[in-house]
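Hi team, as promised in this morning's meeting, here are the two structures we talked about. I've kept the exact order from the run log so nobody has to guess. The first one is mostly here for context; it's the second one we should focus on when we meet again. Sequence first, then the predicted structure tokens.
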Amino acid sequence: MRTFIAIDLLQETKDKLSRLQARLEKSGADVKWIAPMHMHLTLKFLGEIDEDKSIKIAGIIEDTAKKSQQFRLGLSSLSAFPKMESPRIIWVGVGKGNKEATELAQELEARTVKLGIPKEERPFSAHITIGRVSSPLNKEKLVKALKEAENYFGGESTAFAVTQITLFKSTLGSGGPIYEPLQEAKLTTT
């Protein structure tokens, strides 16, 4: 089964991201927008794992969560990979809570590598993917819309409490992926 470990987002946060998507959609660009119900912050993509490995990963998630404090996570600026001028992946970065999310991701990376899960090639970047560009159609209008919305969250409080991390199963289908939570592990309260 195809799996990943992530921070799920509150519905209110997903709604804010959905409003941003609607604003960018007006560019008429050919973008496959992520359905709000599927929005999350990936901490570690695991890929294909078997049942035995999923049990071991469940233990890692529980142990990591017990050692980690709850924290607040806030959205910051809008950006794109590889860069704003030639977007392929449209994403929203994390301001508040970036350090804590990065520490969680690094801990999970170090522990899952020991199970034979490949190490990420790029350094961790806390972000939420909101769209994937499918073709160059109306690219210039999209780039303009991205730049105009770059500080969309400026001054607006978007921080929410991160209380758990989740192991998700991802099933790819013709209508896009379907994410199913397999395990949720509560972070420690202060």
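And here is the second protein, the one for discussion:
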Amino acid sequence: MKERKRFFLNGGISGAYISGVSIQGSVEKWLYESQRHFVNVESKLTLSYVRPPVSDNSEEYAEINNIAIHFLLGFGSKPLDTNNHSYKNHIKYWMFPAIHHYLLGQGKLGLVQK
């Protein structure tokens, strides 16, 4: 078997080229809403097709399809009332997301395994 050199694409954006297309559709539902925060669930369907070259020969390429379903749970904060910029409101606004991210990083929400 004849050995070939490894193929690299030069140029583009750091060697990356647009070589396909993706589309996405999603549906979102808010499960809980307070004055400052909300919890939502979202489902997405993504469809992708790509045909990148694998060598300098234009007849050699990969043909890749991808269909993916995503289910997401989200936590968010609503924008602060522009008429009420009190210190207390800022603490309430940032407290829930900060605690959530801290617990997530510590593995206390059961989502990260150590």
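Starting points for discussion:
DSSP finds one helix and three strands in the chain.
Helices lie at 87-106.
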